[in-house]
Design a protein that fits this description.
heterodimer; A: 326 residues; alpha/beta; Rossmann fold; 5-stranded parallel β-sheet; B: 504 residues; mainly alpha; 3 domains; two-stranded antiparallel ribbon
Chain lengths: 326, 504
């Protein structure tokens, strides 16, 4: 990449990021931080788990995202009777010129943007069907591996309060989510605006402002942002501090945490921090960028012990505490 | 890109220099403060005790401050990377300068690095690295200067009046001790030259010489007085050993008896005049030879009878002269008996009588020498007591005695120790026939025992200690001490005579 092209790429990156954000903002009211973090995860090629009580606009956010991007979109409503074949697809026998043969019927995962709505309502078997596609972006059925078209994102939602008939996501699956984002209740003014936008006859028109190729290009641009040794050391120290057996672990971690974050968490933070730096007009990663993405990247990767669960400790609070101490 | 690199490098280097300059300044200021604190602390003990501050003690804080400057600076000085990190945080560059510095150090020259360097160049442009030097620690510097000024002020303080007086007193005491040692030495030499060889030999005492040699002290008046007291005590002991009173009393009594007889009147006269040397010669002349006749024997018999008569009145005397005289008398009586039995005196018997005469003659000569030596010791003690008087501050001024305000407060003696009563006092009544008796009966069964009271011996020992302690006390005037010593010597002599009578 030439000197001029890199500068242009960075400018393009910033411009496209802003455009996506503003386009989403035409329909989604408030939730600026969540929107920015979802876009960060998408640019970095990661999956997002959105958590929030019903009616906060989780699904609406994902649908708006799909409209903003010129990409295929599929939605799976996870239920307890959903089977892996319903998600991934299956081989069916078809009659072709008098000859019966098996043909692979693609499941809804074969798309660019997959909305896995209420993912924790499906059985672990069905949830696990997503493991390969989320990590390797491939689906293997009947000995044949099918590769996904890039970019590929899984945007899952889950309800944290209705726990009857749900199956909490296993640690392995949680670790595959780039970010876990909590959707909070909008403010008074925001709810008023939501009402204005959604209860009338006219709905805001959302335009497709970015292609899949452009998203991939944005990801490549962000990956080149340099990280100084000092910042990298800080990041590593932060991740290691989430482990209770680590000598730098603060009191809260030592007391309430069962398992700390994996190296994949460090990779996630690094990638997200680079995008955060670019979106904030910098060509290098600062400690500030690491801290900005630490909570969504680590909160679902830090597992509490029994005492932590009993005390009602929040992993987000623990991670925030770490960013202040490290 | 080159320009950006150059500017960033220049900014970092300037920042480092300013930071190190600030650290040097801080090191100097803190070291000055440390110097001031330690100097004041080192000077205070001198000042509080009233002494002039010894300037050498300031060497320690000076060295300490110098070491502190070097150590402080070496520990706190900024390396290039440390300075870059500090500047980055100080100016809020959000690790931009750190990242740019890493690019420059690692030689990274890709497009993204160029962009980052240019971005950093723009962000550092409004900042002045001189700000990194920090503000001058005025309060600490002011405090350091104040402490240094205080320590300087303490340096110029002179010795307090009390210390000056104590120093003068110490010098005077040293001079006095040397003077007294010289005076006493001269007096001893002079007395020894004047006396006979026998008396001079008696005065030869290594302990006394050692004590006089060790008399000079380093300004401690109490030590000097203690040493003078020790010498006086030693002289008194020597005097007691040379005591001639009992011998003289006996010989005076004997002289009275001898003067009554014609044969012994010359000897009696010499003894009554206390011319012991002459008496010794007279006694030597009474020795009998083989050719000597009855006249000498008669004179000896007279001498023996006079000794026996003297025995009646001087039976209690413990003097050596009495013992020698009795032995001589017994030899003469043996000779007389032999003469009566065999009509002649054997050579052996004559020799024994002559030996006895010679022994008595020698004793008389010695008595003269002892008397001379004792007199010399008495003079020495007077000289010593004069010295003690000088040492106690008496006699230095016309009229002697201490001036107004210099007197000794006699009432300052410690009150007697009293046993505090603890708890309820209970009287325990003893039971007859049980427990140890205070009295001790020795050899009671044989009838030859003597009843003694161990308590009285203990009490006597206690009195002796009290008297010795009293005469060694430095706050008692010498005249009083001398009076006490004389009193106890007198009663000792008076007391010893009745005891002798009892024992006989």
């Amino acid at each position: 990449m030439g000197e001029e092209s890199m500068e242009l790429a960075v400018q393009e990156f910033t411009k496209q990021f802003k455009t996506m954000r503003s386009e989403i903002g035409r329909f989604i009211v408030g939730q600026e931080a969540v929107v920015e973090q979802v876009l960060t995860a998408i640019v970095a090629g990661g999956h997002v788990l959105l958590e929030g009580v019903p009616g906060l606009g989780k699904t609406a956010l994902v649908q708006t995202l799909a409209q903003v991007m010129d990409l295929d979109f599929s939605r799976i409503q996870f239920t307890p009777d959903l089977l892996p074949a319903d998600v991934l697809g299956t081989n069916i026998m078809v009659d072709r010129n008098g000859t019966k043969e098996f043909e692979f019927q693609h499941g809804p995962v074969f798309t660019h943007i997959l909305l896995a709505d209420e993912i924790n309502r499906a059985t672990p078997k069905t949830q696990s069907a997503l493991l390969e596609v989320m990590q390797e972006k491939t689906v293997t059925i009947g000995g044949t591996t099918h590769r996904m078209e890039l970019p590929y994102f899984v945007l899952a939602t889950q309800n944290p309060i209705e726990m009857d008939g749900t199956y909490p996501l296993p640690e392995a699956q949680l670790d595959r989510f780039f970010f876990k984002l909590s959707i909070l209740l909008p403010s008074h003014e925001e709810i008023g605006t939501i009402l204005d936008r959604t209860t009338g006859l006219e709905r805001p028109e959302i335009n497709k402002v970015i292609s899949g190729q452009q998203i991939l290009e944005m990801g490549r641009t962000a990956a080149q942002v340099p990280v100084a040794q000092e910042v990298r050391d800080y990041l590593v120290k932060l991740v290691l501090s989430t482990h209770p057996e680590n000598e730098n672990a603060p009191h809260d971690v030592a007391r309430y945490v069962r398992y700390g974050a994996s190296p994949r968490a460090a990779q996630t933070i690094m990638a997200a921090a680079r995008i955060h730096a670019l979106t904030h007009g910098r060509y290098h990663v600062a400690v500030e960028d690491v801290n900005a993405v630490a909570v969504p990247a680590l909160c679902h990767r830090v597992l509490l012990n029994f005492e932590g669960e009993a005390e009602g400790v929040s992993t987000s609070d623990i991670v925030e505490g770490l960013t202040r101490k490290c | 890109m080159k320009e950006a690199k150059h500017r960033i490098r220049a900014f970092s280097e300037a920042g480092r220099q300013h930071l190190n300059a600030g650290e040097r300044r801080r090191a100097v200021v803190w070291s000055l403060l440390a110097f001031g604190v330690v100097a004041v602390l080192a000077a205070l003990p001198f000042v509080l005790r009233g002494f002039r501050v010894d300037r050498r003690v300031l060497g320690f804080p000076l060295v300490l401050a110098a070491i502190l400057v070097v150590v402080f600076y070496l520990r706190q000085r900024y390396s290039h990377r440390k300075a870059v990190g500090h500047a980055d945080h100080f100016f809020g560059l959000k690790e931009g300068l750190i990242t740019a510095d890493e690019h420059i150090r690692e030689g990274r020259e890709e497009e993204i690095h160029r962009l980052q360097l240019e971005h950093t160049q723009r962000t550092i442009q409004p900042h002045d690295p001189a700000v990194l030097r920090g503000t001058f620690p005025r309060k600490i510097f002011g405090l350091a200067l104040l402490l240094i000024a205080v320590s300087g002020g303490l340096l110029v303080l002179d010795d307090s009046l009390a210390v000056q007086q104590a120093r003068a007193e110490a010098e005077a005491t040293q001079a006095l001790s040397e003077e007294l040692a010289e005076e006493l030495g001269e007096a001893l030499d002079e007395l020894t030259e004047r006396m006979d060889a026998d008396a001079a030999e008696m005065m030869e005492d290594p302990t006394l010489k050692r004590m006089m040699r060790e008399l000079p002290v380093d300004g401690d008046r109490k030590a000097l007085m203690r040493r003078l007291s020790e010498i006086d005590h030693h002289l008194a002991m020597m005097q007691n050993e040379l005591d001639t009173r009992a011998d003289e009393n006996y010989l005076a009594e004997l002289a009275q008896q001898l003067r009554q007889s014609r044969e012994t009147s010359a000897l009696g006269k010499a003894l009554s005049q206390r011319k012991y040397k002459q008496a010794a010669d007279e006694l030597n002349q009474m020795k009998i030879g083989s050719k000597d006749g009855a006249a000498k024997r008669k004179a000896l018999e007279k001498l023996a009878s006079k000794i026996e008569q003297t025995e009646k009145s001087m039976a209690s005397s413990q003097s050596g002269s009495r013992r020698d005289a009795r032995a001589m008398s017994q030899q003469i009586q043996k000779m007389q008996q032999e003469q009566k039995n065999s009509g002649q005196c054997s050579k052996a018997c004559q020799n024994k009588v002559n030996q006895s005469l010679g022994k008595n003659s020698q004793g008389m000569k010695q008595l003269g020498a002892r008397k001379q030596a004792k007199s010399a010791l008495d003079q020495m003690r007077k000289k010593l007591q004069q010295g003690q008087g000088k040492c106690a501050g008496n006699g230095n001024k016309p009229g002697g005695g201490l001036q107004a305000g210099e007197g000794v407060d006699r009432s300052r003696r410690n009150p007697r120790e009293s046993t505090p009563s603890t708890g309820t006092l209970e009287h325990l009544s003893g039971q007859l026939g049980e427990g140890e008796s205070q009295k001790r009966i020795e050899d009671a069964a044989s009838g030859a025992g003597v009843a003694s009271d161990p308590g009285s011996e203990k009490a006597m020992g206690g009195y002796t200690q009290q008297v010795e302690a009293f005469v060694q006390r430095e706050d008692i005037p010498e005249e009083m001490k001398h009076g006490v010593k004389t009193y106890f010597n007198e009663i000792h002599n008076v007391k010893s005579e009745p005891e002798e009578e009892k024992s006989e």
